[in-house]
What we know:
Blueprint: H1 2-21, H2 24-41, H3 50-70, H4 86-90, H5 100-107, H6 114-124, H7 130-137, H8 141-158, H9 171-189, H10 199-215, H11 220-234, H12 259-270, H13 279-291, H14 302-313, H15 319-333, H16 335-343, H17 354-366, H18 370-381, H19 387-401
Helix pairs in contact: 1-2, 1-3, 2-3, 6-8, 6-9, 7-8, 9-10, 9-11, 10-11, 11-12, 11-13, 12-13, 13-14, 14-15, 15-16, 15-17, 16-17, 17-18, 17-19, 18-19
Amino acid sequence: MIEAVLRADGGRITAALAARFRDLDLAEEALAEACARALSAWADAPPANPAGWLYRVATRVALDSLRRSAVRHATALPEPEPEPTVEELMTATPLIPDERLRLIFVCCHPAIHPDARAALTLRLVCGLSAQEIARGFLIAEPALLQRLTRAKRKIADAGVPFEVPGPDHWGERLDAVLSTLEVAYAHAHADGAGTGRHAGYAEEMLGITAALAAMLPTESEVQALAATVRFAEARRPARVDAEGMMVPLADQDPIQWDAQLITEGRRYLAGVLNRALGARGIQALIHAEWCARASLADPAPWPAILTLYDALLACRDDPVTRLNRAVALAEVRGPAIALEEVDALNHAGLAGYLPYHALRVDLLARLGLTDAARRAYDAALALAPAGAERRWLDRRRSKCMD
């Protein structure tokens, strides 16, 4: 049960603790201690509001820690919150303020090195593990941990205020904020069935991007990200079949897509089209191209998708973009050319990146290179894919053995 609560509310609790105590390490340590106490306290009768319980206990843990430290400095501290009453534990009212958007802006302060901003936010606010973040950035986990340590020390040493800055300072943090949200949403979206640790964050991204779009109505990249999230979430009902297997985008039935979310996405995108398009604007156009499909009878828009990815490479040339482009390239020019480009990506971080191995499984299988396809399958399986994605990989592997 504790793991489920942390999946749903861990980032919110950490953000609230960090906002209250102005100490990122203290927030993480207090929540960890609260979870340890919950193992015994919840054994017989879990509380009605587990997240609220964890927040209250973590708050008292943090206050006790500060009080012990204050003895040496004669610092006055407020009294800890009282023990919750039975009525409070039974109430359905959330006890956790949602401070995540505020903490995202804190972690993206310009005093923090750009390489560490998104990583720190993903760790504290979104609850991603160091391994997950390292894989997302295609770097080694020890290097990622060093970034996190340096970033937290910088926040403490520089006295970074724990508040959303005024509008005059949004621009200097905006790209880091958007990059953070992109990576966090990618982790949630990668789980087609929506059953993994970060699945809930996909839906919450609808609210977060709407809030940002309202704050910054003239920022094209903000509006574009809000559109992209809606287009992607609209397709979720068709991403898994009746057997629980992932359904590739080209095979999804558009009739199952959420028409309301697609309409919302188009509304956000409309505010982007009359301005110069950045990387996020082009990504939104790619998603919009798919969401223009009305049924499986309509041809998949692979030529248009490839053209848009070519344009995207001009402003965001990275291994992930090239992998996504290779998917379209395989459909337009054939799997052999796509595999040649994928194998030319000489990036060490791809070894821990599941989509890289999954794409190679598909391309190798289509080319009849069965032994290589099986090796690619084994490499993908070693990364512990979610259930729906694993079933798709199993299907591709079985075709290699026929």
